[in-house]
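Checklist before submission:
- one chain only
- standard amino acids only
- sequence pasted in full

Submission:
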Amino acid sequence: MSRLPDLDVGQMSPAQRRVHDEIAAGPRGGVAGPLAVWLHSPDLADRAQKLGEFARFNSSLPPRLSELAILVTARHWRAQYEWFAHEPFALKAGLGPEVITAIRERRRPIFSARDEEAVYDLAISLHENHAVGVDTYRTAVERLGETMVVDLVGLLGYYVLVAMTLNTFEVAVPDGVTPPLRD
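Returned file contents:
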C-alpha cells in the first residue's frame, strides 16, 4: 500500500480530473504507479506525464533500448513497481530474457547487440559514477547517434524521478505479486 491514498475520480479537483483523463486517454491507457501519486500535485502530474510520454513512446530510442534503460534504472534504485511494470514491456520489445535476468541479478549482461551494450554502459556509468567517461560517451555516440544519446539521458532522468516517487511513497507491486527485486 502506498503512503498516499489513491484519489477517487469522483472527488478530484477539476485540475486533477483533467490530468487524470488526459493520461487515461493516452498511450498508457490508465493511471497507476507514479502517475497516481503525482495527481496529488496536478501541475507536476501534467508536466511529468508529458515528459514521460515523450521519453517512453516518442523519443528516437526504439522500445527495446528504452526498456533496457528503464530496467537498469529500476534495478539501480530498487524500484519494485517500476521493474514489475516494465519487465513485460522489455520482453515484448525484444530484450532478451538473459539480459533481463542478468540486470535483475546485478550482473553485467552478455550482449549480442552493440546498441544495447552502449545503452547499458552509459546508464550504469551515470547511475554509479554520476558522470560518463570519454570512452563510454564516444562509444554511445558511435553506436546510437547524438540524438539517441540525448534522448537516452532524458529517459534516464525521467525514470529516476519515477523511481524516487515510487520509493518515497512506497508504491508496492499489486497484492499477491512477489516483489521482483532482491536486496
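Reviewer check: The mean pLDDT is 95.
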